[in-house]
User: Fold these one by one.
Assistant:
Number 1:
Amino acid sequence: MPFNAIFGWLIKKRIHQIDLFRMHPVEVQKEWFERLILTGRKTVFGKRYNFDDINHYDDFRSNIPLQDYENVKEWVEREVSGEEDVLWPGETQWFAKSSGTTSDRSKFIPVTKDSLEECHYKGGKDLLAIYYSHFPYTKLYKGKHLVVGGTAEQNKLRPDRYTGDLSSIILKNLPWWVEIKRIPSRETALMSEWEEKIEKLAEETMYEDVSSISGVPSWTLVLLNRILEKTGKSDIREVWPNLELFMHGGVSFSPYEKEFKRIIPHEDMHYIESYNASEGFFGIQDELNGDLLLMLDYGIFFEFIPMSEYKGTQSEKVISLSEVELDTNYAMVISTNGGLWRYILGDTVQFSSLKPYRVKVTGRTKHFINVFGEEVIVDNADKAIKVACERTNSLLKDYTACPIYMEKDKKGGHEWLIEFSKEPEDMFVFSQILDNTLRELNSDYDAKRTMNLTLDFPLVHQARNGLFDEWLKKKGKLGGQHKVPRLSNDRIILEDILSLNPSIVFEANKV
């Protein structure tokens, strides 16, 4: 039987299950809550926090304190050393290095067999199922699937354990039916030296029949542009005629959409966003151009903290899925089949739909600017950058922003460092559009900008080509799932980048 026919049968079955949690989300979450608690009773953590006494959600909130990585670290270290039944029953062999952190200290997130199979792999299969449900006559599986992934390294404490980006752990354990269609070679996919890896990726893939790609948009663009350079082509379809799907996540796609459409200028090229991290797989874009459906049957129990009342692990107001409201910024809290319990993920989301539950990722609990009460979040910044690029015919490569503190005779403001793959003709016009769009999107920012009373016109720098990559390399975070923090509420990151002698091309004049 042809693969598409087999897969079509499997899709109908899985789409039916997805429809069930679309219609009965609270009941599905309650079922998973009970299963997680029952399993957790067998662990050292469960005994420490009296899981035997947890019968209802209120018991759960009372017995288990909110956790961040500092709270979890000692438990994870016990797993790394080989102890069993610590956070999840059995032995944990895989530990995903967290991405997106600016700290030099590595964070290791446990990945259990259950979380790998019932969460991460299930998410990957559902991505394809949802895509096939929209395009039932696709020939996606006839071509190769290009994975632009991360790196792996052996754990120094025990040879039978390894750490690395989540993508490397997934790559090392893929089922055969995925492995036979995946490129590049495993050796190349797991390389740690990013510049060399890009060259090898290009050489190994540019003569293959690639029909789909998955990866972080920024790093995928680096690879695609290098392939165009090496082949002398201007359109990726000239290299891969059957390319039809890019599955992306990690950062907002909006600032990069124009560049993708420039090098793949075809209406039948499709894009699906996913929301996954080392800690779990959380959402999939189930409607074309829509927001992310919260995936409720992956072994994850969700809680939420309103950002207006967020105080980290000391937050008092924590609510369940049934209590969330539209257009409110929440910090996400997860309990998972990877052994994380009431863990503050660090991401912020807003619900755009409650029937079914769909979210958009708005930023990070630590990635915002709110020195002057302006409450600028990453979602605001991404949208403003996108508008400014569209109206000035420019293309973004990367950016970061931070506050300018008030001084004796100096107003406060925001300072931006932006690297372009195609720079605007007039940077001052770009800065005006950026500022005006932020004012339209964010009433708090607009109020602080009125008459320049609190916030002055933004100071915008154009970074030299390759500056952000140089900074990431200095931090040991070049390539894979790593990314430049978009917003910071202090000046540490920006000043660290500027210390690399950026040769600033432009500073927007204040008005």
Number 2:
Amino acid sequence: MQPTQIPVEEFTTPDPVTAREDLSIDELQALMKRHAIRHLPVVRGDVVVGLISDRDVRLVSGLSLAEKLQVRAGDIMVTEPLTVAASAPLQEVALKMASLKVGSAIVNDEDGRLLGIFTAVDALNALVEIARGQGTRWTHAGR
């Protein structure tokens, strides 16, 4: 398969850890630390309504304790994250992420439901695998 024909789904981290809009900054930090992740889709029910990066959380973690206790995930999330279809070409998704200077994209299935998240780390893994001339399947073991 040519690299331009590889669907982003091939390198997407499936079933990502998600957050609710009402989580506190401390809860977000703990969730990210526990799962060793830097991007959290924010969901309302089963619909993605935003995205939070570790950078977003770090920015507000410097607030006073009283201020920090008032901030919730819904206050700091990006409300229109980059969202792509699972069948979108890997190359196009990576180019879009680079042009927008974002570190991740929400990947939806054909019904528009959250399938996974494609991050800059996933893009680097794809690059390594393609450069090595290996198959297109990358397992997410240990992630």
Number 3:
Amino acid sequence: MTNPFNRTTLWVVIGVAVISLVVAIVLTVLGPAQKFSAASDGYSVSAIGHKGLVTLLAKLDVPVVLSRNNSSAKAQHGLLIIAEPNITAKETERLKALIASAPANVLVVLPKWYGFTNGDGRWIDDAELKDLPEVEQVLAAIGLEDGNLLARAAPSMQWLAEDLPQPKLRASVQTIASRAVTPAISDRERALLGHYEHEGKTIWILTDPDVINNAGLSHPENAQLAVALIDRLRDGGPVVFDETVHGHAQTPSLLHVLFEFPLVLATMQVMICALLVVWAAMVRFGPKRAPPPPLAPGKDFLIANTAALLRYGGHDAAALERYLGATIQVVRHALHAPDSLGPAATIAWLERVRVSRGSKLSLPELQNTVAAARDPQRVLEVADHVYRWRMEMTHGTANRS
């Protein structure tokens, strides 16, 4: 058997397949390129970030999403967490739009810290408290505008909590005093966690992010509180961390998704296959095929050539008449019709046999149809009727009762 590939082509195809397989395995093992941050967002592994909470929820089999667009829609059947939004005009407007379109379950975590990153951009060397008036801009954006709401003080020795674990916090605990907020965790005067009504929906607010940030989760009490609170609010649905308020907004793009892990593996495979197809179409692929002989052997070629000549000469109708005459003689001999019968008597004799066998194709009607056929397409159709008449006369019909 001739090898369909020459040696060079075979080695190229094998090499491409092996490289593609190795790249797929390496990317699968190493995982996707991680997005890192040192700020107060879900990508941050620094002390003030929230990567720890995202990882903790994922390990507890809680569906968790870091959302860079359409966060409210993604959280329709779960919990939307807006954790420490940036205090800029653009992000504040995003925050207002999020609150307006948010689902029933929303948790807002107020900002507290500025972080100063080191050289690698993943950790912080130092952190400073944000000014309270800056944080109160977030309160105004989410519908709490009482004025002088926030304060920072030493932590309470005993928090009043509604069926939630006790938090453990260091100095400068950030709390709120507002008639609009119903406390869930408080020190009897000021709330650390509470909820309020805004535009027909209930919004939960956690005033101090040290309960859920990476540094705070080092205390088991805070981790228990964070998980218990989120599990209560999500009501079995997913947890969506909005990252648009941290400057990570991204317009949905199918092209961008196709080149992100893991879909980039399938995209690479398709591109490689497309390149091979283009290569095969542009150059000879495999050994040169031998040209066919000028005249093909066998009966099929002879029959096809004869039919083409008859059609070219316009003898379709004449060939059909001869075909019918030859078919009548074949059927006559197959049924042992008497040799003394003339043409008319033969047709009458065959008609009597047809009627007795229950065939529906009448020979006189078939002769008239053959005589009237002139169009090449019609000639082919009538020839098929002649063949069916022969089969029914010699082998019977399935329509016999």
